[in-house]
């Protein structure tokens, strides 16, 4: 029997490495936890970067991080989710059974893309996989999120335009290229803990709000 759960399950997915999945996942989970939501972060990347992030902390965690890089994720997550309001899944850097399982588990999928044509082209793979796997999932909502954006550049605008060829919307909230994302990660912290009123914190909060309202 499938346990009843009320948690919102948000997967951060893109088979391309280095696009900012883990950065977005830990900061999104922190934003939700700091907003008073009981939050769980699932590390579904065999590399375990989110687990590494948490291990680097000197202070008590804002939320638990569990490693679960298994293609049975969609079967295991509902039982885990029962104790939480929000579950964030940091996705794997491959198009494989594990990625499929994360898609099946999710109600929201956010696909981080950098403002680069390579990222736009590479997004084709994850979009296809989502369409294949989630064809009949009525309550699934997907969106792109621009990450590592450098100012208000032409390439930034071009990428948003190019992403319109895909069937998912581009979130209005974007994450800038900001050193605080890397610096905070090195200490196992979220940007909201290091610079609670800084621009990175505002960006993450805006994206979190947008995802929940989708
Ligand atoms: N918005 C950002 N600003 C600055 N650096 C970033 C940003 N997002 C990610 N990074 C850095 O880019 C690298 C890759 O990010 P990561 O989140 O690990 O990507 P992925 O999980 O998709 O492989 C890391 O060194 C991270 O600190
Ligand atoms: Mg990662």
Automatic annotation (TrEMBL):
Any Pfam family matching the protein: CbiA
CobQ/CobB/MinD/ParA nucleotide binding domain sequence ranges: 10-189
Domain of life: Bacteria
Gene3D superfamilies membership: P-loop containing nucleotide triphosphate hydrolases
PANTHER family on file: COBQ_COBB_MIND_PARA NUCLEOTIDE BINDING DOMAIN-CONTAINING PROTEIN (PTHR13696:SF96), P-LOOP CONTAINING NUCLEOSIDE TRIPHOSPHATE HYDROLASE (PTHR13696)
Name of this chain's protein: Chromosome (Plasmid) partitioning protein ParA
């Amino acid at each position: 029997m499938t346990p009843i759960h009320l948690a919102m399950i948000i997967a951060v997915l893109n088979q391309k490495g280095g696009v900012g999945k883990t950065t977005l996942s830990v900061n999104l989970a922190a934003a939700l936890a700091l907003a008073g939501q009981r939050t769980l972060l699932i590390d579904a990347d065999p590399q375990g970067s989110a687990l590494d992030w948490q291990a680097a902390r000197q202070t008590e965690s804002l939320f638990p991080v569990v490693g679960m890089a298994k293609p049975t994720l969609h079967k295991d997550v509902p039982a885990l989710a029962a104790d939480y309001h929000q579950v964030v899944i940091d996705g794997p850097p491959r198009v494989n059974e594990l990625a499929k399982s994360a898609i099946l588990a999710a109600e929201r999928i956010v696909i981080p893309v950098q403002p680069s044509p390579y990222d736009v082209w590479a997004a084709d793979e994850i979009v296809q996989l989502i369409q294949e796997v989630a064809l009949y999932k009525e309550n699934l909502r997907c969106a792109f999120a621009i990450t590592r954006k450098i100012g208000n550049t032409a390439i930034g605008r071009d990428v948003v335009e190019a992403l319109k060829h895909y069937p998912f919307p581009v979130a209005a909230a974007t994450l800038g290229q900001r050193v605080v994302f890397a610096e905070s990660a090195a200490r196992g912290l979220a940007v909201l803990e290091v610079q609670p009123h800084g621009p990175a914190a505002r960006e993450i909060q805006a994206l979190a709000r947008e995802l929940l309202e989708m």
